[in-house]
């Protein structure tokens, strides 16, 4: 790849990475800030604990849908431009959430906020193009990505601790305005700190041939019908035929999507590649893993905040304890990621991945009998964190190793997309499981039944176990060293 005109390879890279670190600090705040205070948000909006899951479901489905087209647009019109657009949308969603007067308004804001998920892929692309022509391009990109992910993880912990400390000291509007301020400041940083590099469209307006608009439309329609079916189950209950018709329609459209992609020259999703050995196992694992790593955080938060003296279950924990739980979980994820090379040498590459998935299954399985004390919660999430960290770090690299050189970016991006779709669907399913009555005329007390939480943990454990079975069918793979592993950690590791 040639160096863009007027730009020297790797010159001033540290300054650009410094500006991008500010972006990842804002990303980490978004990912860690809300988890400790979800119960307080539910009280603020006068909704049930189960309905909070819809916020995450809406955000995750938007995140899954925006990554492929925005990543492609970044190549066509310039990565800075798309980074600015996505930041503007994220900021708008964050401000809507801060001043939302109702469940519906907050849901819309949460969905808009999901545009942030494309930040890290765009940032890595900016660094990669900035170092074009330098013989150390790959090394510099890996190091920059490691710095960005490190900033992200630190900010997740800071965000969680901050919201937990402030929740009782200020109004909810002020509390929710803080992440909005951080994202708005992030927009200014990108505008003035990141140089513009033209995309590959040569100044012309990208068209359907560039973006595969037909495929994107079918994908959006399929996922939209599936999510609509799950929402109607929540509204009408499983006895109504309407949600099942919507789900069947969603599957039918997905079949049409696959057929369309097979005959498209530049498909938005390369289904042929995803069906090859080494890819389908990883992508299936990412989907199943997303159910727990992305879908289970709100149920864990609301369970921890539930008062056992009032409801008969829960930890009766403060927002501060949930912040501590999030911080410890992130730390153990980092331990799992950094010890992956060691476990790979001891167990073999495939054995290390299978063991990591089994750790996630074990951790959530422990929640079924052990959920009465904060100590039990800490132990359970430590086990989950060890396995999750290794999988988050390894799955993109394994997908890249099983892909042709010209499709490695697509393969690694799809692990993030399939994981996000899994999290979105799981969040909707968990909202149904946590519903006291199966409809929006839920329990007057606003608390989910304990059986709902047991269902959530059981599904997380089962999905992780099936992921381990899929990984056991992988061809022999090579897991990169610790430097490469850190660089491949996805942007949503700590959601």
Please provide a written account of the structure.
It contains 22 helices and no strands. Residues 1-9, 437-445 and 479-495 have low confidence and may be disordered. It has helices at 13-33, 38-45, 53-77, 79-99, 103-113, 119-130, 137-166, 172-193, 208-211, 213-236, 241-262, 271-274, 280-293, 297-305, 308-311, 319-338, 340-347, 349-367, 374-401, 408-433, 450-472, 482-487. It starts with 12 loop residues before the first helix and ends in an 8-residue tail after the last helix. With 495 residues, the protein is mainly alpha-helical. The longest helix has 30 residues, at 137-166. The relative contact order is 0.14.
Overall geometric form: globular
The helix content, as a percent range, equals over 70%
Which structural category fits the helices and strands?
Answer: mainly alpha
The biggest sheet, with number of strands, parallel, antiparallel or mixed sense and barrel status, is: none
Give the number of helices: 22
| Percent of residues in β-strands | under 5%
Number of strands: 0
Span between termini = 34 Å
Question: How would you describe the oligomerization state of the chains in this entry?
Answer: single chain
- Element string (H = helix, E = strand): HHHHHHHHHHHHHHHHHHHHHH
In the predicted model, the low-confidence regions spanning at least 5 consecutive residues are 1-9, 437-445, 479-495
């Amino acid at each position: 790849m040639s160096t863009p005109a007027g730009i020297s390879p790797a010159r001033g890279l540290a300054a650009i990475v410094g500006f991008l670190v500010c972006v990842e600090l804002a990303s980490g705040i978004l990912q860690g800030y809300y988890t400790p205070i979800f119960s307080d948000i539910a009280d603020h909006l006068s909704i049930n604990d189960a309905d909070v899951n819809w916020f995450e479901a809406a955000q995750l489905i938007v995140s899954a849908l925006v990554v492929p087209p925005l990543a492609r647009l970044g190549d066509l019109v310039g990565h800075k431009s798309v980074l600015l657009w996505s930041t503007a949308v994220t900021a708008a969603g964050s401000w809507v959430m801060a001043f939302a007067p109702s469940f519906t308004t907050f849901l819309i804001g949460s969905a808009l906020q999901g545009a942030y998920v494309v930040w890290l892929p765009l940032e890595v692309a900016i660094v990669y193009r900035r170092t074009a022509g330098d013989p150390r391009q790959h090394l510099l990109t890996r190091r920059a990505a490691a710095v960005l992910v490190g900033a992200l993880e630190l900010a997740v912990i800071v965000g969680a601790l901050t919201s937990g400390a402030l929740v009782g000291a200020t109004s909810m509007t002020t509390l929710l305005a803080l992440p909005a301020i951080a994202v708005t400041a992030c927009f200014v940083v990108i505008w003035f700190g990141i140089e513009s590099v033209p995309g590959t469209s040569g100044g012309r307006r990208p068209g359907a041939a560039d973006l595969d608009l037909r495929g994107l439309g079918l994908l959006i329609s399929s996922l939209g019908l599936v999510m609509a079916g799950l929402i109607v189950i929540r509204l009408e209950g499983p006895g109504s035929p309407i949600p099942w018709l919507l789900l069947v329609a969603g599957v039918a459209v997905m079949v049409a999507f696959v057929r369309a992609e097979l005959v498209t020259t530049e498909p938005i999703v390369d289904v042929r590649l995803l069906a090859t050995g080494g890819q389908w196992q990883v992508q299936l694992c990412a989907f199943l893993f997303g159910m727990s790593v992305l879908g289970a955080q709100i149920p864990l938060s609301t369970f921890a905040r539930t008062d056992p003296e009032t409801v008969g279950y829960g930890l009766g924990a403060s927002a501060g304890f949930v912040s501590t739980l999030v911080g410890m979980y992130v730390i153990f994820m980092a331990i799992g990621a950094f010890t992956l090379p060691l476990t790979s040498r001891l167990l073999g590459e495939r054995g290390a991945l299978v063991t990591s998935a089994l750790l996630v299954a074990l951790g959530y399985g422990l929640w079924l009998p052990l959920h009465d004390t904060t100590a039990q919660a800490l132990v359970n999430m430590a086990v989950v964190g060890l396995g999750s960290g290794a999988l988050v770090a390894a799955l993109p690299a394994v997908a890249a190793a099983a892909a042709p050189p010209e499709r490695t970016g697509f393969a690694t991006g799809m692990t993030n997309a399939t994981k996000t779709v899994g999290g979105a669907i799981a969040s909707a399913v968990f909202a149904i499981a946590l519903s006291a009555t199966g409809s929006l005329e839920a329990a007057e007390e606003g608390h989910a039944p304990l059986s709902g939480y047991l269902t959530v943990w059981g599904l997380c454990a089962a999905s992780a176990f099936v992921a381990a079975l899929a990984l056991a069918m992988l061809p022999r793979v090579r897991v990169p060293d610790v430097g490469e592993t850190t660089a491949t950690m996805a942007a949503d590791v700590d959601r």
